[in-house]
Each structure stands twice: as C-alpha cells, then as structure tokens.
Amino acid sequence: MEQGKKKISVIVVTFKGKHWYDQCFTSLRNSALPVQTIVVDNASNDGSVEYIKERFPEIHLVESKDNLGFGQANNLAMRYALDQGCDYMFLLNQDAWVETDTLEKLVGIHNRHPEYGILGPVQVNAEKTKVLDGVIQFLINPDNVNRQMFSDFMMGTIDEVYPVAEINAAAWLIPRNTLETVGGFDPIFLHYGEDWNYLSRVLYHGMKVGLTPHIQVVHDCLEQVDRPKGYEMDFDKWLLLRATDILYPDTQVEDMIRQYRRTAIMKLLTFHKATFKENWEAYRFLKRNRTCIEYSRNKNKTVGANWL
User: Angle of helix 194-204 relative to helix 69-83, nearest 10 degrees?
Assistant: First the structure.
C-alpha cells in the first residue's frame, strides 16, 4: 500500500484545554497526510465540547460523562479507530501540535523500519527554542541512554530513528500491528504510569521504541490545567509500575512484598519510625493489590488487543 493511502487516526484526549484547541486541531486539519481526528472529552464541563463541535465539525467527538483518565479515554478511541480500519494511530496531547509534514515523515520512517512498535518525535517548547527538559531527562537516564545517538549528535551524522526505552506519550505514532499485539493502556493506571507500562509491554513483545530526532512536535506543557485528585505521580503509582512491569520476572510481585516486609521489620527494630512506616505501607499496598497486579501481568503477556 502506498504511504499516501495509509489511514491515519489521530487521537486527542481533552480536559479543560480550550486555549490549546485552535493550535492542536488546526495543525491536524492542515496535515499533508489526511487524518481522521478522534477526540475523547473527559467531562470537561467548561464548554470544550461545544467549542470543538462549532469550530472543528470534522472531528469524531466522544463525550464521556466521567473523567476516565488518559489511558482509558485513549482506549475508547483506539477501539473505534481499529474498527474503522486505521493503519496507524497517532496519540497527541491536547497541549501539543504538529507541523504539516510531521505525520507523513513518521509514517515514512515506519515504512522503512517496521520493527518499531512506537515512534516518537522530539518534543519542543511552544517557542521552538529548546527541547523539553523532560525529554532530555529520559534520554540521559542510564537505563534509557542510547550511546550511538549521542555519538552521532557530536559527529553530525544523525540517523532518522534510534531505539530508546522511554518516550513521553504526548506524541506517539502507533502502527496497527502494535495495537493488535500489545493492546491498549492498562486500566490499573488512572493517570501517569500508563505510558511507561505500555512501553515495557511493547519491548516485551519484541518490538522497538524509537525516537525520531529530525522530527519535532510542540508540547506546550509548561502551562498546566487543574486536574482532579489522583492525577499525579506518587509512590503507589511507582510501586504499580515496578510490580506490573512484565520485563521483570514472574516473581516480581512476591519479591517486592518480601523486600518491603523485611525492610520494614528491620527499620522497626532499629527505631527508624519514618522509614518503617514507608516500607510497611508499601508492603500493605502490594499485598492488598497483589491479585489485580498479577492479573494485569498475565493479561499483558498475552498477544491481542487487550483492554480495548
């Protein structure tokens, strides 16, 4: 199939972000590669739905009565896009926008490198003057660093894609095969953590995650919207990330439970009250959620459009 005939579904989850919509949706409307834009609105109640209907009638809009979080809202749109026969999905944050040729270039790279299950462009600030600090932090993480990429940067011989372990889900190109193999986001995560969990599943199923350094998207993430309680990265989410990561062995959950119980007892015996409490709460959290964590791990190891 020719690149121009590929069916691209762009998925945007919205929540009280009207001041970004013109930039985001107009950039998709102007894409050189025609796209179907699917929006799931997470019960914004600020006029977002009416705004989108009036200014962007071409968008397929799903109005959720509840705030489903990032992952489950995307899952609704992913299922719809699969049913519509899409070849690629492009996840885009409401506070991000693309260049005219962004999607065309990403699809072209995937055609040349089909081993990649996700491709992510470089995310830059609204002024297009710098790479986002969060992207740099990912790239210099010892568990994620690609030494060849940094060497190529210094030598001026930058390739079109490099394998990495982490890349923020604000802009992901996902081929249909990835959805049919890995599935959607795990609903065990409400918001934050679901993208890192998903990346580990892509790697587990034998695909690569790629950064495309020549392609940029604007991610205006410095201006945040108010989010309900639970929309932050905390210690419980970190525990879930570690426990559900199927790149770790099947004993991961039990190993963590034993580790935190043993450490808590040691801290109690040595009168370290604060660290005892932290480790004991981690132990209790993992014990309480062990069944759903193990269910999640088993399902995510299975090939198929899970969670969709």
Answer: 50
